[in-house]
Amino acid sequence: MPPKSTDTNLNPQTQEHFLLSFERPASSSEDNTLLASSDKLTIVLCTRGCKTVQLNFTEYVLEPGSIAFLYPNTIWKPIKTSSDFQARYLSMREHSPKERNAFLDLETIFSLSTYIARHPHTSLSANESIVVEGYFRLIQNRYEAHVNYAIIRSLISAFILELNQMFAIRVERKKLKISRKEDILWRFLSLLTQHYKENRSVDFYADKLCISPKHLSSVIKQLSHKTAHEIISDVVIMAAKQLLKTTTLSIQEISEELNFANQSFFGKFFKQNTGQSPSSYRGE
């Protein structure tokens, strides 16, 4: 069972501005692939044990002192988890369009957002780990104490600036360069997580990227070992599984949410990709 969110116990002042959670990303199972929320940034700090995960089809190992960022619509797939794995989570979600400009505009707050989005995992030094965990504890403590919104906002802003400084040092050291193929893959995944409900055609994404469908398919296959069509289907199935397990929407409503022509088409698509009918999967 997924953990209960803390969102229902919010400080009324805080609830007017933004929502926070300190639980792991919700999914039907710890081992299920998850398409992260479209409006939330989640920061994960491993404090004990280890966990192997895929983030946007790239594999990483979370170990004590390592940190991972789940940007909106990140594809998160747990591979293997040690029995003693523990982590701290901080999820931030905007509550209104105004708040996006004032607080959670990640492109503004993270001057290195492109680096972090493309390299969502890093290992911290011992001192950095102490600082980051200290912020996690302080923010959660003050949040649960229902302190004034301005205090919470200031703490998170300071935390973001600390992270920004840590990553600035890493970028300077590595002088990181992104290959053209990596850039295509990253932009394809970014577009896909925005448009998978309306567009499931490789041609659509190739057109958006101003390259041929053949070239897009070739690049995706080289870097992910999956075809572009398979990745598109994977993302749709992830979303369908989340809706089936974490909402009370009917199967008809889910098929409409994902823009299938009708429930029958959705059922066939789901069974073709999972070996189960939607109702069978929901009943597990």
Fold and architecture overview:
With 284 residues, the protein is of the alpha+beta class. It has 2 domains: 7-174, Jelly Rolls; 180-282, Arc Repressor Mutant, subunit A (Orthogonal Bundle). 51% of the residues lie in helices and 17% in strands. The protein contains 13 helices and 9 strands. The protein has helices spanning 12-15, 97-104, 106-109, 113-118, 126-144, 149-174, 180-195, 202-209, 213-224, 228-246, 251-257, 263-274, 278-282; strands at 18-21, 34-35, 40-48, 51-55, 58-62, 66-70, 75-81, 86-94, 121-123. The strands form 2 sheets. A 5-stranded antiparallel β-sheet has the order 1-8-3-6-9. Strand 4 and strand 5 form a beta hairpin. The longest helix has 26 residues, at 149-174. The radius of gyration is 20 Å and the shape is globular. Mean pLDDT is 78; it is low at 1-18 and 95-111.
Summarize the structure.
The chain is built from 13 helices and 9 strands. The protein is α+β, with helices and mostly antiparallel strands and 284 residues long.
Summed up, the domain count is 2
Average per-residue pLDDT, rounded, comes to 78
What is the count of β-strands?
Answer: 9
CATH homologous superfamily label of the largest domain: Jelly Rolls
Largest sheet data:
5 strands, antiparallel
Order of helices and strands: HEEEEEEEEHHHEHHHHHHHHH
Shape: globular
